[in-house]
Specification:
about 375 residues, alpha+beta, Globin-like, about 60% helix, single chain, 3 domains, five-stranded mixed sheet, Helix Hairpins, Heat Shock Protein 90, 11 helices, two-stranded antiparallel ribbon, transferase
Length: about 375
């Protein structure tokens, strides 16, 4: 070991040449020499355990420094190995006792391994802390975005609902004042107006899922799955007929769900209308399936269409606000669906391939 201490400058010179060759972008040679000298002190002082050595206290700062500079940990470890090779190269030309060299190298190897484990530990500890901090900041930004949407939604609901309430009231008055003969002529048109009115109401309810100050908070109640599906299909069937879509429904009609009726109607309506939009560019053979399954804990409602596959680059963020593949889409529909399903102790997911895209709604079973 005394021999190695005497040749530290040569070892550092050899190591510097190797580092320059491997990492020519590294320019701070003085800092590299200083850290290399500390490192060799730690490695050569075999009488002091690695964890107790004064230089060991500097390792966390080293790791934080290279992590902040974006240096991959593998580069730091490679630099450690290059320094070990420089030690071997210095020993090789000299005539030393073979057994003594083996003992020295075994001790050095053990201390290098201890140092490398410490580097990986502290580097990962710091990197994990930074990742958690970044995740926290992203969550805060996401929450700010949701709060902004919520404020916009509450404002829109107030401005839109007032005139809508007046419209609905006047429709009711007109029905009451029209004769039966007149109702035969205009009744179906008034039915269409009322259906469209209900559609707008559901859209407003969906937007309010982002608002912390909801205008109306509907209570959950027991409703049959069949009744829930049928109430939505009544509104969307004209569009399906117009688009020549073949609809197949296989629903466990008597299953009871404990949910908010209007918001869940909004979720179903949104997914079905999205499916209709997805089939627009398909010339023939348009199909949509709505079916349900149940296990011990949950009821699942699947809405499938044979339209195009959802782009892979959108899949991880599909339920986030403002994410859409539609040229005229707002990117809020599926985000609203996600919010509503969470509020109703449910969830929404999807599977998509080139043959079919299926959105899956899951609800907790309504147990006594």
């Amino acid at each position: 070991m005394l021999f190695l201490h005497r040749h530290i400058n040569q070892i550092l010179e050899q190591w510097s040449l190797s580092m320059k060759k491997e990492y020519p972008e590294y320019k701070d040679i003085e800092r590299m020499h200083r850290n290399g000298r500390h490192y060799l002190e730690l490695i050569f002082d075999i009488q002091t355990p690695v964890e107790s050595h004064p230089v060991y206290e500097k390792v966390p700062d080293w790791c934080r420094n290279i992590a902040e500079k974006g240096v991959p940990v593998v580069h730091a470890l490679h630099g450690s190995h290059l320094l070990r090779e420089a030690v071997i190269q210095i020993l090789s030309p000299y005539d030393h006792d073979r057994a003594e060299i083996c003992d020295v190298m075994a001790a050095i190897r053990s201390r290098v391994d201890s140092f490398d484990r410490a580097v990986v530990h502290f580097y990962w500890e710091y990197a994990s802390l930074k990742m958690k901090e970044q995740d926290r900041r992203l969550d805060e930004l996401h929450e700010d975005k949701i709060n902004l949407i919520g404020k916009m939604a509450a404002s829109m609901a107030h401005e839109i609902r007032n005139p809508l309430t007046s419209i609905k009231g006047f429709i009711s008055l007109m029905r009451g004042q029209l004769s039966e003969q007149s109702l035969e002529h205009v009744g179906k048109y008034m039915d269409i107006i009322e259906n469209e009115f209900e559609n707008i109401q559901m859209q407003i309810t969906g937007f309010l899922s982002f608002s912390k100050k909801r205008v109306i908070e509907e209570e959950s109640s027991d409703i049959a799955l069949g009744q829930l599906i049928e109430s939505v299909l009544v509104l969307v069937k004209p569009r399906m007929i117009n688009e020549n879509i073949d609809l197949a429904v296989d629903i466990q009609c008597d299953v009871l769900l404990h949910v908010q009726k209007v918001p869940i109607q909004q979720v179903l309506s949104n997914l079905i209308n999205n499916g209709i939009d997805a089939l627009k560019d398909k010339h023939d053979g348009k199909t949509m399936r709505i079916y349900s399954r149940q296990d011990e804990k949950r009821t699942y409602v699947m809405i499938a269409n044979n339209g195009p596959e959802i782009p892979r680059e959108l899949r991880d963020s599909l339920f986030e606000p403002f994410v859409t593949s539609k040229l005229d889409g707002t990117g809020l529909g599926l985000a609203i669906c996600k919010q509503i399903m969470k509020k109703n102790n449910g969830d929404i997911d999807f599977v998509s391939d080139k043959y079919e895209t299926t959105f899956i709604l899951s609800f907790l079973n309504n147990t006594p």
